[in-house]
Each structure stands twice: as structure tokens, then as C-alpha cells.
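Page 37, continued from 36.
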């Protein structure tokens, strides 16, 4: 969380005073405002505000018709929720390498496509844009869906288009650790009407047909799903946070550029698929071995982290996925379903050595949008000294 204050408190107070805390109401309609803002920001026809990025990913996959017998390609470096969303639909996550940008490798995608592949989930990890031109070309060639996981990249872009608005659907997260936050929340974005209708029903099947006119004009019939509906208090916070988004991105990018410009020539940065669209949250410095990366990260005043150490963001730590425990009840476990018997992957902790190697030789330095030039200069000097 970067910035939060009295504006959010005021908006929450309005909601509580109104006593309309449920998403559907005739009062402030904060949730509807969130969805309208998202459609405007991302220049899309459809947006759903729900409880988490995982809820958005799962609902989008359901909207795509993904299920048992299908494979979905995911990167080896992403939060476990990306793979778990695939399992939640009954499908099989196919884990592939990232490239030097630390985002999913288009070459690895192409190599892992089979007749069972239904979708690709590129993940804009740390706000780093994926190579969406290559990914969309691959998807078009093989008639695959693309679901952008932009949960760590709220508001970022690729060649002028917002991340999450390029593929068939996009997912955002607004939990405490994201660029904008409401404590916990997410959004599904799409221009595909059929996908949107299915996702709306799935994410709130217990209420969608009974509250308001949410299904007005729908052609899709109601089916059983989940209850990922959010509420007006979270929406109130997010409405203010979304108004802060452009300023946050501008300051993050400005400070990241200042750091990189002043470190140019003294260190090597990971390559970017679009440095202008990068969210600016992280300066990623590349080393030629893990030993040097760790030595640098632990120097006084650096506060660096290696992505290899980020636990559930690295595939080998996705314990329920690697050990193929997709549900508590074995009859509901996709890894044991008859439809998947020929496509259950042979996971192992060393299955993506190139990814593990890359993640062990990079150090992340967090960018603070509120740092002054003086504070940035001190940080830059510390980094230069640590690199000597």
C-alpha cells in the first residue's frame, strides 16, 4: 500500500451513514462506480468488481469455458493463485519457463501447446509487461484464449494499451500489497460479452438473479457458481484509490527512471518488454551468479530481495500443485478426474531450471513513489557503493 488517508475515511463514512452496505442498492452505488471507473480507465465494455484477483482469474476461466480435459499454460514465476485458478475450473496448469524479462517466455508457450491447450495466462509480475505481441500472435495461431494476470500491475500498459485489456480477459488485484488497494479485492476485465455473462453468473450465482437487474439482457442462463461478491465499504475505499492511480504510476515511474538513469553503466538491469509501460514499482538488477546477487542484496542500506526467495511466487513452492492435491474430496480433485487422466503433468521441483537460475541472479530494489530527490540520491549512492 502506497497512499491512503482522509479521503478514504470520508468515503467509508458516507457508506456507513447511508446504511447501504450491500453491493446492490439505490444509494451511493459505490460498487457500480468502481466498475464504471474501471471500464473508463481500461477502455473496455465490461468490468466486474469482486473479492480478489484469484476470484477474477477463476471467473474469467469459467467464462472462457475452461474445464476438465483442458490445459492452461502458466508461468513458473507467479503467485500460486494463478495455477490454483486453473485447478478450480477442473483443468490442468501447464507450468513453463520465464525468459530474461522474468515474464512468461513466448518460446516456452509455443513448445508446450498441445491439442488440449485451451488458454494462456501471461502474468505481468512486479508490474513488468509481458511480450503481449508475441503471446497474442501465438494465441491467434493456435486459437487459444488469453487471460492476462495483471494482479501486480494495476494500471500498467504495453505499447499504449493497459495491461489486462489486451487479451480476451484480464484480472486485477487490490489487496494490501498492490498499487491501489481496498484491503482485499479484485476485478475482471473483458470486451467479450459471452465471457462476461458467464463470469458474472459464476462469481455471484447465489444473488445475481435475485438482486437488482444485473442480468438484464443476458442470454446465458443461471448456473451454480461461487460467491465472490464484494461490498460497498471496500468499493468506497477503491473508488478513492482509483482516483490516485495515475498520480501513483507517474511518481513510481519517475523515481524508477531517475534511479536507473543514475545507475546506468554501473550495473545491469533485466530487459523490459516495454519500460515506458512498466508500473515502476521495482528496479531489477541482474548479476552473473547467485553469490554476487546475495552479497549485494545484504549490503547495508540496500534492502534488496531475490525473487527466488519469494516463496509461493516460485513454482517449486506451490506444494498442493506440485504434489497434485487439487481438492480435499478426491472425487472433486481435477488431478484424479477421468477427463484429465491423459494430461496430468509430471511436475517436479527442478522442472524449470532456467527459471530458477534467472530468479536466483536478480535483486529487486523497491521504488517508493514518495521519495524525494535527496532520498533517491542517498539510495543511489548506497547502491553504487554496494556494487563496488
Amino acid at each position: 500500500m502506497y497512499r491512503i488517508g482522509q479521503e478514504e475515511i470520508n468515503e467509508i463514512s458516507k457508506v456507513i451513514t447511508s446504511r447501504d452496505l450491500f453491493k446492490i442498492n439505490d444509494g451511493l452505488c459505490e460498487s457500480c462506480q468502481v466498475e464504471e471507473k474501471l471500464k473508463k480507465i481500461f477502455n473496455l465494455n465490461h468490468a466486474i468488481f469482486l473479492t480478489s484477483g484469484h476470484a477474477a482469474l477463476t471467473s474469467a476461466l469459467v467464462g472462457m469455458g475452461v474445464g476438465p480435459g483442458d490445459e492452461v499454460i502458466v508461468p513458473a514465476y507467479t503467485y500460486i493463485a494463478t495455477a490454483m485458478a486453473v485447478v478450480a475450473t477442473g483443468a490442468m496448469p501447464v507450468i513453463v519457463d520465464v525468459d530474461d524479462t522474468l515474464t512468461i517466455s513466448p518460446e516456452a508457450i509455443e513448445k508446450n501447446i498441445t491439442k488440449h491447450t485451451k488458454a494462456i495466462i501471461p502474468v505481468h509480475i512486479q508490474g513488468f509487461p509481458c511480450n503481449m505481441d508475441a503471446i497474442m500472435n501465438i494465441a491467434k495461431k493456435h486459437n487459444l484464449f488469453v487471460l492476462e494476470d495483471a494482479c501486480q500491475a494495476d494500471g500498467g500498459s504495453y505499447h499504449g494499451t493497459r495491461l489486462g485489456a489486451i487479451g480476451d480477459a484480464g484480472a486485477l488485484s487490490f489487496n494490501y500489497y498492490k498499487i491501489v488497494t481496498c484491503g482485499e479485492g479484485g476485478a475482471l476485465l473483458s470486451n467479450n460479452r459471452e465471457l462476461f455473462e458467464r463470469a458474472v453468473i459464476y462469481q455471484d450465482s447465489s444473488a445475481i438473479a435475485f438482486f437488482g437487474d444485473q442480468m438484464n439482457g443476458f442470454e446465458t442462463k443461471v448456473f451454480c457458481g461461487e460467491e465472490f461478491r464484494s461490498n460497498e465499504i471496500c468499493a468506497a475505499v477503491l473508488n478513492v484509490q482509483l482516483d490516485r492511480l495515475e498520480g501513483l504510476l507517474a511518481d513510481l515511474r519517475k523515481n524508477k527512471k531517475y534511479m536507473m538513469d543514475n545507475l546506468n553503466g554501473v550495473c545491469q538491469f533485466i530487459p523490459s518488454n516495454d519500460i515506458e509501460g512498466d508500473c515502476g514499482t521495482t528496479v531489477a538488477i541482474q548479476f552473473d551468479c547467485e553469490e554476487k546477487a546475495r552479497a549485494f542484496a545484504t549490503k547495508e542500506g540496500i534492502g534488496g530481495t531475490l525473487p527466488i526467495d519469494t516463496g509461493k511466487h516460485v513454482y517449486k513452492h506451490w506444494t498442493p500443485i506440485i504434489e497434485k492435491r487439487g481438492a480435499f474430496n478426491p472425487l472433486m480433485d481435477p488431478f484424479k478426474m477421468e477427463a484429465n487422466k491423459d494430461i496430468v503433468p509430471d511436475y517436479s521441483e527442478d522442472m524449470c531450471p532456467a527459471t530458477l537460475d534467472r530468479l536466483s541472479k536478480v535483486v529487486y530494489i523497491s521504488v517508493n513513489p514518495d521519495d524525494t530527490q535527496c532520498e533517491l540520491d542517498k539510495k543511489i549512492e548506497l547502491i553504487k557503493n554496494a556494487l563496488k
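The chain has a mean pLDDT of 97. Flag for discussion at group meeting. Residues 68 and 91 are 5 Å apart (CA to CA).
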